């Protein structure tokens, strides 16, 4: 039996029976007269399609808001949620403070991208994110305006008044919205079918396990920031999809004494505050994975399981020695990430098995860990090369352990084992590191593509090792930096 989708829009519950599971939220909005939300790229890059989702917090009385890309979000993914579009912001003739700020600062420009900017700023305003430049730039990094002229948009963001519960219509309506969301909360699994396709959305780990066993060829969907493009850009048909983002056990995040235990459905946004405390170098990299809209939907587990050779999280996880907990029919096995990838987009996942958790060890006391991403743009760009390193020095200053993870250099993210072997046991000095760099030629034979040539990738891979040497602040590195100052 297929279920009707239910979500809240415009202050009322909307039911969509027999929905096409692969229809995006953007497509549904525009087909139903809400044309303020635009399609610019259909891949989650430009932000013209930005909408905001509201969900009940753990207590069930207050709402949390997050900006997302409607162009790569399948309609079943908003079941049970509040959907806010640009048409919802004004209170009759009274503009929302974000809209008023955009108007007063002449920030609308041609208007095509303006609704997306407004919704991104609305999400920032709802979360009380502040109006300092770093926060504003982070909130707007996922919105690319075709007219340029970002200054008036930034001026509008800086001029936003603090969120005032007494005057904000969304605060005033929160009790009623919470009641509506509680009325459509779904205690059991959701099944949606239409156009010859079906999507299952389980609520428990046991239900997810049973579904994956029964449908071993189904596509596993977490946030959709990669899978969504398979439909919108590659025009693939996904006959069966299992959406795991509502499985409570996969949304847990545990800070252990020696490692993080990250559920496969934990979003980057939920993970970031923990990384900032425990692994600040990795947190800085995660802030460059997509933008706020992508991080609000995308998951670390999805990035790892999809296994793209240019996935940004994997080099860091390889350097840290991360492990994966794989689940099949109530049974679990733990696999080192470095052994998980068997080839391009091929992994060690067995039939009926899925990724349950990612285990990330903390660097040991005295270890040095760093990771860097090299791309044409700082924000909203795919890596040409991404690399991460972890170094342990012995008491005599020699290299006790060196781990290097690379992305963008091969068919899969991989450790640079020849480089590691060349450095282990030797001195940690410019001479030793320089002498070891040719070992990278045995580790990787990079390709040329639209992002970088093979020669550029090979040069960057070496230079990042030298950057790590400088980063560790060794005596010879200090002398070299002084000479170049």
Description:
It is a single chain. β8 (219-221), α9 and β9 (240-243) form a beta-alpha-beta unit. The chain has three domains: 7-14 and 21-183, Beta-grasp domain (Ubiquitin-like (UB roll), Roll); 190-247, Uridine Diphospho-n-acetylenolpyruvylglucosamine Reductase, domain 2; 366-485, 2-Layer Sandwich (Enolase-like, domain 1), CATH 3.30.390.50. The chain is built from 19 helices and 20 strands. The protein has a five-stranded mixed β-sheet with strand order 2-1-5-3-4. It has a five-stranded antiparallel β-sheet with strand order 10-11-16-12-13. A four-stranded mixed β-sheet has the order 6-7-9-8, covered by helices on one side. It is α+β, with helices and mostly antiparallel strands. α2 crosses α5 (151-158) and α10 runs antiparallel to α11.
Q: In the CATH hierarchy, what is the superfamily of the largest domain?
A: Beta-grasp domain
Largest beta-sheet details: 5 strands, mixed
Total beta-strand segments: 20
Distance between the termini: 70 Å
The DSSP helix count reads: 19
The low-pLDDT segments are 475-485
For this structure, the CATH topology of the largest domain is Ubiquitin-like (UB roll)
For this structure, what is the CATH class of the largest domain?
Alpha Beta
| Helix and strand composition category | alpha+beta
- How many domains make up the coordinates? 3
So, CATH architecture of the largest domain?
A: Roll
For the residues shown, what is the average pLDDT?
93
Radius of gyration: 24 Å
Fraction in helix: 25-40%
- β-strand percent reads 15-25%
Anisotropy-based shape = globular
Order the strands across the largest sheet as they lie in space: 2-1-5-3-4
